[in-house]
Amino acid sequence: MKRGLIAATAVAGMLVGVAACGSGGGNAGADGFRGKKLTVWVMSGSNPAQWTKQVSAQFRKKTGATVEFKVQQWNGIQQKLSTALSEDTPPDVVEIGNTQTAAYAKAGALADLGDLKKQIGADWNDAFNKAAMADGKQYALPWYAGNRVVMYNKKIWAQAGLKDTPKTRGELFKDLSAIKKKTDAEPLYLPGQNWYFFDGLTIGTGADLVRKQGGKWVSNLADPKVAKAMDVYKQYQSFSAAPRNKDEATPQQADVFAKGKTGAIIAMGYEAAEAVKTNPSIKQDIGFFTIPGETADKPEGVFLGGSNFAVAGMGRNQELAKEFLKIALSKQNDAQMVRESGWTPKSPALAAAAQENPAAAAAAPAAAKSGGTTPLIPQWAAVENIPNPIKSYMTAVLGGKSPAAAAKDVEADINARLAKE
Fold it and tell me: Can you tell me the distance from the alpha carbon of 211 to that of 189, in angstroms, rounded to the nearest whole number?
């Protein structure tokens, strides 16, 4: 999903062998856990209220221990997490973006969780679990994943005379044009650096952001397919007055939507709850639909973004951490995540829960037909470090530079990041 003093690109050299040095500690059994406190790092917006409440209660009842959720911000998290995992007393359980797990696993910073996968995740979809593995081993467990949908304001849609939701990209652009002409609302709020949406567009064109050259990973931004995806993004962004040099978290686009002056945003399901928290009265006006593609039979390409839970290799409460994961990732609590935040179900057992959440229902078609991820290689985490060169590429193209020229400007930076071990 988004993503200290030590850059993630340098974590390998510092943390090699960390997992072997960890105590694996904690006394087995409820009596041994009683009175202990487990520290769990979660990212802003990840742990919904009811899920957090019931997991905390179940954990305390089963173990006699308490759990403290410490909320982190995505901006700069890789450097902060790299530092934390290298210390003698790291957080016990950490949320890691699913595209970044391989880097921490390669560094030896995470405990092997293969035994837990067999116990609690036998029916998880391979697409979800793949991003929690490295070199064939289970170094994390998939917590949630989802893809973006169009979150729209029904009232504004009605003011523009729009009765149905669009089934193709062309129809969507016509609807946004109607909102621009017939209302005083901004048709679409889409900042210039919503790069996860852009990554979905590249998936839709069949493009890869990196490629192998001489046995090494290098930038593939100069690929014409990437340029085609950026052209589509440019068409979307033309309906927005949002800054071209900011991402969807600066400011939080859910807060912008909450003001009731925006026709639509490209959103994750949980952002509806964030908007309602800011402005409860907008709840009745929120609707969702699948991001339509060029043709009605295939939705727009989407990035399957999400997070995994991992146990720190240097953690002193590893057995207690595993008890937490058994509870947090139970079918009951996974279903709560789907219902409460609109995440895509990671097993058939959660399909019913998805139907209870309109955002999850809208996300499902694209996830099944047009979903994918960024490259699942350890080197990729370094590319996402701030300043993210792909965001710089996007801003440059939106500012008038050709995709080829913008790609050339950041290519050396991307290649240098990919080259670091």
Answer: 32
**Three-state secondary-structure class, residue 105:** helix
CB within 8 A of 134, min separation 6: which ones?
101, 102, 105, 106, 378
Strand pairing class (262-267; 133-134): unpaired
What is the DSSP-derived secondary structure letter of residue 109? Answer: -
Mean pLDDT, to the nearest integer, of 43-67? 96
Query: Distance (Å, rounded) from C-alpha 172 to C-alpha 179?
Result: 11
Strand order in the sheet with 286-289: 186-189, 262-267, 149-153, 286-289
Q: How far apart are CA 262 and CA 216, in angstroms?
A: 44
Q: d(Cα 310, Cα 319) in Å, to the nearest integer?
A: 13
Instruction: Map residue 302 onto helix, strand or coil.
Output: strand
- DSSP-derived letter for residue 48 is -
CB atoms within 10 A of CB 301: 25
CA separation for the pair 404, 414 (Å, rounded) = 15
Contact status, residue 1 vs residue 97, Cβ threshold 8 Å: yes
pLDDT at 385: 87
Whether the per-residue pLDDT at 24 is higher than 70: the answer is no
CA distance 167 to 158: 17
Flag whether pLDDT at 398 surpasses 50: yes
Is the confidence at residue 8, as pLDDT, over 80? no
Half-sphere exposure of 89 (CA within 13 A, CB side): 3
* pLDDT value for 42: 98
CB-CB contact of 80 with 4 (8 Å): yes
pLDDT tens string 202-257? 999 999 999 999 999 999 999 999 999 999 999 999 999 999 999 999 999 999 99
C-alpha distances in Å from residue 167, one per residue of 151, 322, 362, 365, 369: 15, 44, 12, 12, 15
Closest C-alpha among 164, 190, 186, 168 to residue 177: 186
C-alpha pair distances (Å), 277 with each of 48, 255, 379, 416: 12, 9, 37, 42
pLDDT tops 50 at residue 92: yes
Residues 210 and 217 sit within 8 Å (Cβ to Cβ): yes
Supply 291's token pair: 């991001």
Give the C-alpha separation, 128 to 142, whole Å: 6
